[in-house]
């Protein structure tokens, strides 16, 4: 007798689960656990990283991420409004900016602000300002596109109703349209914060004091010349997960809530 589609799907899943179990068991038996623990999961090396990895590296990573998001959000709102403007030059400038900074790696932006601008204009920013500008310039391009989609998703009747009540264009946008758009784009904005947390690792290019180390720089310095193996980098990775996993769960919560809201309409 021919199998039904459900039976074939059940067999296919069983084969996949079986292969997964075989691979995991093989890795468990093949891996050199003594070497792995001593080089990458050494408890004594991990203990040496505290409390500085929290009080310095993790704290600085959070600060750099927050600065980049504030700058990117401010620029993103402005660019999104320019992108939707009825004034053609504003649209052209916003489109050019967005395409440029979405296409250029963040690494080049850090190098340009950290070394290119000082050479060209004899102006050197404080490291915190450079980090905020570099992360903000890149994130603004992505945030602008998310916000543009959110602004376009707000029903036009909302704007028309605000205008009919005597509100100016600016007041209608600030008090009615933009808050609704922000609520719509909360999931992609949360994901952008995750990307900023990881991009903050590029700060090492600027040259820093020990007090300015973020997680990646802290981990790299801890393994150089100490024989600590990869343990400091593994610990730094765990600290990144402390930031990104809750943000990922928050983004999924926002997505679920948005889907539930759409289903009720």
Keywords, please?
0% strand, 265 residues, mainly alpha
What is the string of helix and strand elements?
HHHHHHHHHHHH
Share in helix:
over 70%
Q: pLDDT average, as an integer?
A: 88
Strand content: under 5%
Q: How far do the termini sit from each other?
A: 46 Å
Instruction: Tell me the overall shape.
Output: flat
The largest β sheet comes out as: none
Number of helices: 12
What structural class do helix, strand and pairing data support? mainly alpha
Spans of at least 5 consecutive residues with low confidence = none
Describe this structure in words.
This protein has helices at residues 5-30, 33-40, 43-48, 52-83, 88-103, 106-121, 127-153, 156-164, 169-184, 186-199, 215-223, 231-264. The chain has 265 residues and is mainly α. The longest helix is centred in the C-terminal third of the chain and has 34 residues, at 231-264.
SSE blueprint:
Blueprint: H1 5-30, H2 33-40, H3 43-48, H4 52-83, H5 88-103, H6 106-121, H7 127-153, H8 156-164, H9 169-184, H10 186-199, H11 215-223, H12 231-264
Helix pairs in contact: 4-5, 4-7, 4-10, 4-11, 4-12, 5-7, 6-7, 7-9, 7-10, 8-9, 10-12, 11-12
């Amino acid at each position: 007798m021919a199998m039904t589609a459900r039976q074939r799907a059940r067999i296919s899943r069983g084969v996949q689960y079986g292969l997964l179990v075989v691979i995991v068991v093989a890795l468990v038996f093949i891996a050199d656990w003594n070497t792995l623990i001593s080089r990458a999961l050494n408890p004594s090396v991990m203990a040496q990283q505290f409390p500085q990895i929290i009080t310095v590296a993790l704290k600085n990573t959070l600060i750099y991420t927050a600065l980049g998001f504030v700058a990117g959000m401010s620029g993103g709102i402005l660019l999104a409004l320019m992108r939707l403007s009825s004034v053609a030059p504003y649209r052209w400038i916003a489109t050019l900016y967005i395409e440029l900074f979405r296409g250029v790696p963040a690494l080049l932006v850090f190098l340009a602000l950290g070394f290119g601008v000082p050479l060209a204009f004899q102006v050197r920013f404080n490291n915190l300002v450079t980090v905020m500008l570099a992360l903000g310039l890149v994130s603004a391009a992505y945030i602008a596109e998310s916000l543009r989609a959110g602004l376009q998703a707000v029903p036009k009747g909302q704007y028309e109703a605000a205008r009919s009540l005597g509100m100016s264009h600016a007041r209608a946008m600030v008090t009615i349209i933009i808050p609704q758009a922000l609520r719509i784009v909360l999931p992609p904005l949360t994901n952008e914060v995750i990307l900023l947390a990881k991009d903050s690792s590029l700060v090492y290019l600027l040259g820093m004091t020990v007090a300015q180390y973020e997680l990646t720089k802290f981990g790299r310095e801890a393994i150089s010349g100490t024989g600590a193996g990869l343990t400091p980098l593994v610990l730094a990775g765990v600290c990144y997960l402390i930031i990104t996993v809750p943000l990922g769960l928050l983004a999924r919560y926002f997505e679920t809530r948005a889907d539930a809201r759409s289903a009720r309409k």
